[in-house]
Design goal:
single chain, mainly alpha, 7 helices, about 80% helix
């Protein structure tokens, strides 16, 4: 039987640990009652800090303990996306199951997102009435599956910038 590559093993392990932390944070924020955790401004999302810390330590561990102090840029990017795949799948699965078992999670999201859309009349003028109506329609027909896919997708997008920076910072090539 073939062993899992160290980069994949470390990324998956850290992705699952970070996913459990994110799930705990989502539950804390949801039950705290200050707003739905999935409606946090993307620039203030706790995933940015979580990804930065965990990706850094994932790549550093692989570089220093398993790859002889060498880390190529492509290894950093692959490790980062393996980490986020594990993280995103775990969190998306949680959102799907929790939304199914706890229906108010989805209905609260819909109510708060509709309220946000209605509270921004300048947004309607900026994007146009038709686009606003389309966004309004999407918000009211949201389900757990859409929220899970949306969360996973945004996690991948966030990782693009974070992983690029960390991969460049930690990159070390062999001396020839």
């Amino acid at each position: 039987m073939k062993r899992i590559h160290p980069l994949a093993r470390i990324a998956l392990r850290n992705g699952l640990v970070a996913g459990l932390l994110a799930i705990s944070m989502m539950l804390f924020l949801y039950y705290k009652g200050d707003g739905h955790p999935l409606l946090i401004n993307p620039f203030m999302d706790f995933r940015i800090v979580l990804f930065g810390i965990f990706i850094f330590f994932t790549l550093k561990e692989f570089r220093d303990q398993h790859n002889g102090g060498i880390l190529y840029f492509w290894q950093g990017m692959v490790g980062s996306y393996a980490f986020v795949a594990a993280f995103g799948l775990l969190c998306a699965l949680f959102i799907l199951i929790f939304g199914y078992l706890h229906e108010s999670f989805i209905s609260d999201y819909i109510q708060e997102s509709v309220a946000q859309l209605k509270s921004m009349p300048e947004f309607v003028e900026k994007i146009g009435k038709e686009d606003f109506e389309r966004n309004f329609e999407k918000a009211t027909s949201t389900n757990g599956y859409r929220l899970a896919i949306w969360y996973f997708g945004w996690s991948l997008i966030m990782t693009l910038f974070i992983s690029t920076i960390i991969s460049v910072v930690l990159r070390r090539q062999p001396k020839i």
